[in-house]
Write a structure and sequence with these properties.
mainly alpha
Amino acid sequence: MTSTRQAPGSTTGAETNNYTTDSGTSGWTGWIVFAGVMMLMMGAFHVIQGLVALFQDTYYLVGQEELVVQVDYTTWGWVHTILGAVVILAGVALLAGQMWARVVAVILAFGSALVNIAFLGAYPLWSLTMIAIDVLVIYAVTMHGKEMKPISS
């Protein structure tokens, strides 16, 4: 009977199923890519929602006096448009692996959820969809953000 010794620090085939690759990145980085793409979508959705509020404020289900925060739709339009642009920029930075983008992503997703809760009366299905995307982004970034490595230049 022959026995083999394994060098310290090396792994056997049975031990390599820990979702890491030879480059040191984790298989969980897919969650960060998912969060980045979701942020790009979320930002685009905010911009669309903001432009609709700016140019066609009669589109929404309730008048501005029936919203949780009683401001006119022009104000809501600017809030959504600016928030959307910032979310898109943070999504691009998150896809580039920037550490600060993880922190900003969580803050922006939280802020987006709050804005959509306040906007819930105007367009409930859209707001609930946006809140669900926000929750997924927060989960992906907080649970698996450390696995993402910045792009080397």
